[in-house]
């Protein structure tokens, strides 16, 4: 993902319906303003990829951006957390997510030189949980937490992929 994709990522959250944000576990009131988010991304992208707080990958199908993945809570050389999003409802449930998750995982393992990659979607959002399982992630547990700064307290399912198990 490069700076020209910033608004797509921001709009994904800011234009989502409240019901969709709830499914993601996102609290609309915690979303940064568009300009604050833009500034934060620009500042982060001014660093080399391996030093970013939130490197991200654009997913394309037929030459068009259909989704993205981002990483955070990065401990370089050790572990990171991955997030995944398909932009339009028409592109969900087409099997794209599994391939994109595998490719994203490979990218994060290489660029961040991590040994473990976690993903922790809302426990009641079935699609990402199935996708992670199909992509080779291993279920660890379900618990209640606030996974990130834009999330509300919720039940989440923690999945992990170890470097040795990556596709």
Fraction of residues in H or I helices? 25-40%
Q: How many domains make up the 3D coordinates?
A: 1
User: What is the CATH top level name?
Assistant: Alpha Beta
The ordered string of helix (H) and strand (E) elements is: HHHEEEHEHEE
The termini sit apart by: 22 Å
DSSP helix count? Answer: 5
Could you tell me the CATH topology label. Aminopeptidase
Name the CATH architecture: 3-Layer(aba) Sandwich
**pLDDT averaged residue by residue:** 92
CATH homologous superfamily - what is it?
Gcn5-related N-acetyltransferase (GNAT)
Portion in beta strands: 25-35%
Q: Rg to the nearest angstrom?
A: 15 Å
User: Number of DSSP strands?
Assistant: 6
Q: Specify the structural class.
A: alpha+beta
The major beta sheet can be summarized as:
6 strands, mixed
Detail the poorly predicted runs. Answer: none
Report on this structure.
The protein has a six-stranded mixed beta sheet with strand order 1-2-3-4-6-5, with helices on one face. Helix 1 (6-14) packs antiparallel against helix 3 (34-45) and helix 4 packs across helix 5. The chain contains five helices and six strands; from the N terminus they run αααβββαβαββ. The protein has one domain (3-165): 3-Layer(aba) Sandwich (Aminopeptidase). The chain has helices spanning 6-14, 18-24, 34-45, 96-112, 126-135; strands at residues 56-61, 64-75, 79-86, 116-119, 138-145, 154-162. The mean pLDDT is 92. Helix 4 links the parallel strand 3 and strand 4 (116-119). The chain has 167 residues and is α+β, with helices and mostly antiparallel strands. The radius of gyration is 15 Å and the shape is globular.
């Amino acid at each position: 993902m490069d700076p020209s994709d910033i608004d797509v990522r921001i709009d994904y959250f800011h234009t989502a319906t409240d019901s969709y944000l709830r499914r993601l576990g996102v609290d609309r009131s915690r979303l940064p303003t568009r300009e604050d988010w833009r500034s934060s991304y620009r500042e982060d992208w001014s660093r080399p990829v391996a030093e970013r707080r939130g490197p991200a990958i654009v997913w394309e199908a037929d030459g068009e951006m259909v989704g993205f993945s981002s990483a955070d809570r990065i401990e370089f050389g050790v572990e990171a957390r991955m997030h995944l999003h398909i932009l339009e409802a028409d592109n969900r449930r087409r099997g794209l997510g599994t391939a994109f998750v595998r490719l994203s995982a490979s990218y994060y393992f290489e660029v961040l030189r991590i040994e473990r990659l976690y993903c922790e979607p809302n426990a009641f959002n079935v699609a990402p949980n199935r996708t992670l399982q199909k992509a080779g992630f291993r279920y660890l547990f379900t618990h209640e937490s606030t996974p990130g700064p834009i999330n509300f307290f919720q039940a989440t399912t923690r999945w992990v992929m170890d470097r040795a198990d990556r596709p």
